[in-house]
Design brief:
With about 475 residues, the chain is α+β, with helices and mostly antiparallel strands. The protein is about 35% helix and about 10% strand.
Length: about 475
């Protein structure tokens, strides 16, 4: 493990864990299953008609030039409306200091950005996500029935949800804090979005997202619910959440979603190729460690425990490939530096990581699939397509023989599988020197004849391939 930062691939993560949407897509309830599949389709291909507002925007980019904020002067926020399109940023609807619009999503995003900025400024003396006053941008009403929220490396993006399982994603303050925390991680540790570093990346966002909510609500460690995304689930699922930091594996348990699979101890660490190596599942382990440290110390979680985690995340010793055990030691070092070697803070941190098994045993993350060099596909060849990630980190999967697909799709898969197209895209994606886009979806394709096993972030797929994957996942002819 290197002790200094290194140039490492930045991850793409999405807020919806893949296994929730997979479960919904396989539901016996036709309405629920259809809604889940619809939510997994990359929304309409229509172009958003951009308008220049005369407030510094350009029709070419839709971006407004903004002056960086200061801790003394406050944040600089800009909210745009994507109007059910997937074109970003959309039309400006509210700038810093503007009155409320009456649009719940717009005003919740504005307030959530402010609450997040305030946490970093007042608790950690950090001037926005980059420490230099980065203006906070967000687009609401992204896509149609879009079950996701993500940080694309420059701004926040919020969907409205499908209206059956998920409501609008701006309704959850810890979701807003979670996504913006990916920006802080990007500008500091730059944790790789794979395996244990990726699970730490997700955990940092859950930790600081929860701190945003706790501070805004005036809750101490004992009074907080320690739930992530509790406001997202609606209808018969209302009252449950996507994750529980207090008790990973208990956030939900119902016939619609199944049972929360998060582990709370290293003995239950999940080795998987889905969702970038299970980043949304295994994040339960470091999440539980923070909860244990915070409740052992008592008081406000954004104070001693928050300062320790923040110091470890933003310090010079952390590397992009940091695993759980290394981060645990960094929090111990931070506790010593901030509070002393004989402090109750160090004792609480050490006990927390020991209780979740990290300081006792930290198994390596899952390895990468090995590519093959197969013969051409036949009609009996089975292709397995997955779509994982999202805010909740869930996966939808379908295995189907090429003969059982519509002719146009069977021919398309034959062409793609017979070439090295997917492998080339995967290689280029891994080497792309781009900004991270946390909480985006990730597509996977596997086939035995020919042998193919690739995983590609959605932003690297050409439109025709994304449409082919979506049609295959949803059984559309």
């Amino acid at each position: 493990m290197n002790s200094t930062k290194q140039g490492s691939p930045r991850g793409r993560c999405t807020i919806i864990p893949p296994h929730i949407l997979e479960r919904l897509a396989q539901s016996g309830d036709i309405v629920v299953a259809a809604a889940a599949r619809e939510a997994l389709i990359d929304i309409d291909q229509g172009l958003l008609a951009r308008r220049a507002h005369g407030r510094g925007e350009t029709a070419a980019t839709g971006k407004k030039r903004l002056t960086p904020g200061t801790i003394e002067g406050g944040p600089v926020r800009l909210i745009s409306d994507a109007k059910s399109s997937n074109r970003l940023p959309g039309t400006t609807v509210r700038g810093e200091g503007d009155p409320a619009t009456g649009d719940d999503a717009c005003d919740e995003a504005y307030d959530g950005l402010g609450a997040t900025w305030t946490l970093y400024a007042q608790a950690f003396e950090r001037n926005s996500l980059d420490g230099k006053g980065l203006p906070l941008r967000a687009s609401v009403h992204y896509g149609r029935d879009y079950d996701n929220a993500f940080w694309d490396g420059t701004q926040m993006v919020f969907g409205d949800g499908d209206g059956k399982i998920f409501g609008r994603f701006t309704a959850s303050l810890d979701v807003i804090g979670h996504e913006l925390a990916h920006g802080v991680t990007e500008h500091t540790a730059g944790l790789m979005y794979q395996g244990q570093p990726g699970a730490l990346n997700e955990s940092m966002s859950d930790v600081f997202g929860s701190l945003v909510k706790q501070r805004e609500l005036g809750q101490d460690a004992a009074g907080a619910d320690w739930l992530i995304g509790a406001e997202l689930l609606i209808g018969e699922l209302a009252g449950q959440a996507l994750r529980s930091m207090k008790a990973p594996g208990t956030a939900y348990d119902n016939p619609v979603l199944g049972k929360d699979p998060q582990p709370a101890h290293m003995r239950d660490y999940v080795d998987t190729d889905d969702d970038h190596g299970g980043v949304h599942i295994n994040s339960g382990i470091p999440n539980k460690a923070f909860y244990l440290a915070a409740t052992a110390l008592g008081g406000n979680s954004w104070e001693a425990p928050g300062h320790i985690w923040y110091a470890a995340l933003t310090g010079t010793a952390i590397a992009a490939d940091c695993d759980f055990a290394t981060f645990a030691r960094l929090t111990q070092d931070a506790a010593i530096g901030l509070y002393g070697a004989d402090s109750p803070e160090l004792a609480a941190v050490t006990a927390a990581w020991s209780e979740v098994g990290v300081l006792e045993a930290a198994p390596s993350g899952p390895g990468s699939p090995e590519p093959g060099d197969p013969p051409a596909p036949t009609g009996e060849s089975v292709v397995a397509v997955t779509r994982s990630g999202g805010f909740a980190g869930r996966t939808v999967r379908r295995e189907v023989a090429l003969d059982n697909l519509p002719k146009r799709d069977a021919k398309a898969w034959n062409r793609v599988l017979s070439s090295d197209t997917l492998q080339v895209i995967e290689t280029r994606a891994a080497a792309a020197p781009e900004r991270s886009q946390p909480d985006r979806f990730c597509y996977g394709v596997a086939c035995d004849l020919p042998r193919v096993d690739v995983s590609i972030p959605e932003q690297h797929l050409p439109d025709d391939l994304r449409q082919l994957f979506d049609r295959t996942l949803t059984d559309e002819s």
